[in-house]
Specification:
The complex is a heterodimer. By secondary structure, chain A is mainly alpha-helical. Chain A is built from twelve helices and no strands. Helices cover 87% and strands 0% of the residues of chain A. Chain B contains ten helices and ten strands. In chain B, the strands form two sheets. A six-stranded mixed β-sheet of chain B has the order 6-7-8-3-9-10, with helices on both faces. In chain B, helix 6 runs parallel beside helix 7 and helix 9 packs across helix 10. The chains are: A mainly alpha, B alpha/beta. The interface between A and B is medium-sized, with 24 and 36 residues.
């Protein structure tokens, strides 16, 4: 309390410098406390980096034997990509309808809107790995588990961004079409959908990219797709094959990002 | 018989003070009426109560001899098809072409299925082309609306209202976002529509001099109440002071005189 009172008497810049200094000090104390608490040896941590690099270059690269496993890896990769695309597109389709009920411009009444935003929040804020673990109980180790985990997260995210998109880009033209006497669904089809289309496509592509990245993690948890391949090779100490899986994932993510950027430009 | 009769119309948002307080006036077929008043006086609310874009709190809007107070959803749609509306920000679907935006004016006449699919008859398309020709937009027919200038966009807005074959045009600040020359084109177009097609026009304006030059009749609103209702030449400085408050009144009148001399 005394400190606060004194700070008021200081001039503006001294005050700013003091509060920044305080922030840095809190950060240092926190870091130091966690280092002690976890018994982390800082010096050992840094000196082991070269060792890790040496190990990786010695073991973690695809060799001739690993290349022979490429067809099997690619088959798993295509499973994962198809699952990501399917979950992103189908979830976005449903999310669009829920978003229409949630957006201020197009909602039927306030309660629909509150409900739509509510389920979006629930689905979005549970992480994809948490969804995968929850769904593991219902569907076991199958593609369904991964598919629904990605579906739910995509759904929650898309409802949220589409509500914002609808309110941002179509409010004015919706008003104009209401004034011509057009019916509710006519307004959706003739004004909301054409106005939102570029953003809609853009977000669906974004979710496909995101889902392919998440699908790898989900695959490790649910025992499906490319993530499972990695898990198997890694645990059986076949590091050459595991590294090939990583290379394939990185290349496919880059390729899909390039394709989606091209589609975005074409749509806009 | 008047085309439009506003009868004791009041609008209250929640428990705030009245946005419109017992508004009473009639408009004859073929009139060109300007509504003036300071920002927040209730001009936009009044216009939107006429086609029920904003539900009124009490009173009635009698349009073409029919009380619209207790209209159901279907009757309301039919009511709105009779009234074209023009907006300050044009309110077009910017990603669609000019002609598609014009044809949107026909959607009020369509069933939901035809509207959703966007089925327009050849006669409707023909009419859209003719209207665009009359408004000098035939070169831009297939352009996307986001490629047009403000003045051109507003003409597309007018075309969309005209294709409704309306009895009444409601114009909400149609020139507030336009430069003077585009504004003049829009006001001339509205005047022409009024005289040639005999369509009744009610226009909200911020510019008193424009209202005085174009309208046959000026209604002044302040704090949700009608302060004056007179022909432009009967508009005295005292009345304008009453509509806008004293200091703003002087500024507006100075401008008005300058225009009168030019």
């Amino acid at each position: 309390m005394i400190l606060v009172n004194n700070m008021h008497k200081l001039d503006f810049f001294t005050q700013k410098r003091l509060s920044f200094g305080l922030f840095v000090m809190v950060l240092i104390v926190l870091t130091y406390a966690t280092i002690i608490f976890t018994e982390y040896n800082v010096a050992k941590g840094f000196t082991s980096i070269p060792k890790a690099v040496r190990w990786a270059t010695a073991n973690f690269y695809p060799d001739a034997a690993a290349i022979k496993k490429l067809p099997a890896i690619l088959a798993k990769l295509s499973d994962t990509i198809l699952m990501s695309v399917a979950s992103a597109t189908v979830a976005s389709f449903f999310a669009f309808f829920v978003a229409i009920f949630g957006a201020q411009t197009t909602r039927i009444n306030v309660w629909f809107s509150v409900f739509a935003r509510g389920i979006a929040t629930v689905f979005r804020n549970i992480d994809v790995s948490a969804w995968a673990l929850i769904l593991l109980f219902s569907f076991g180790q199958s593609s369904f588990t991964g598919y629904f985990a990605l579906f739910f997260v995509t759904f929650g995210f898309m409802v949220r961004v589409l509500i914002e998109t609808i309110d941002e880009v179509s409010t004015d033209s919706v008003e104009a079409l209401r004034a011509t006497g057009a019916s509710y669904f006519t307004i959706i089809a003739q004004s909301v959908i054409p106005s939102c289309l570029p953003q809609l496509v853009s977000w669906v592509l974004f979710m496909i990219e995101t889902n392919i990245r998440s699908a790898t993690l989900v695959g490790i948890l649910t025992g499906t797709g490319i993530g499972y391949s990695f898990d198997i090779y890694y645990k059986s100490l076949n590091y050459h094959a595991a590294s090939l899986v990583i290379v394939v994932i990185v290349l496919s993510v880059l390729a899909i990002e390039a394709v989606s950027n091209w589609i975005r430009r074409a749509v806009l | 018989m008047p085309l439009l009769k506003i009868d004791q119309l009041s609008k209250r948002y929640g428990t705030d003070k009245y946005a419109l307080d017992s508004i009473d006036f009639t408009v004859e077929t073929g009139e060109f009426v300007a509504i003036i008043g300071p920002s927040g006086a209730g001009k936009s609310t009044l216009l939107r109560c006429i086609n029920h874009m904003i539900p009124m709190s009490s009173g009635d809007v009698v349009f073409a001899d029919a009380s619209t107070k207790s209209f159901n959803a279907t009757q309301l749609r039919a009511h709105r098809t009779q009234i074209g509306m023009i907006f300050q920000h044009y309110n077009l679907v910017n990603r669609l072409s000019v002609i598609e935006n014009v044809l949107h004016g026909r959607l009020g006449y369509k069933s939901t299925a035809a509207g959703v699919m966007g089925w327009y008859s050849n006669a409707e398309k023909q009419q859209a082309v003719e209207i665009l020709q009359n408004l000098g937009l035939s070169d831009h027919m297939y352009k996307r609306c986001d490629q047009l200038s403000g003045g051109q966009k507003q003409r597309v807005g007018i075309a969309r209202a005209l294709i409704q074959n309306p009895k009444l045009l409601l114009c909400d600040e149609p020139i507030a976002s336009l430069d003077p020359s585009a504004a003049k084109i829009i006001m001339d177009t509205l005047k022409d529509i009024n005289q040639r097609l005999g369509i009744t026009i009610i226009v909200n304006l911020h510019q008193v001099d424009v209202a005085m030059r174009y309208a046959q009749r000026i209604i002044g609103i302040n704090s949700g109440k009608i302060v004056c209702d007179a022909a432009p030449d009967a508009l005295t400085p005292t009345i304008i002071h009453e509509v806008y408050g004293s200091e703003a009144g002087e500024l507006i009148l100075d401008f008005g005189e300058q225009y009168a001399q030019a």
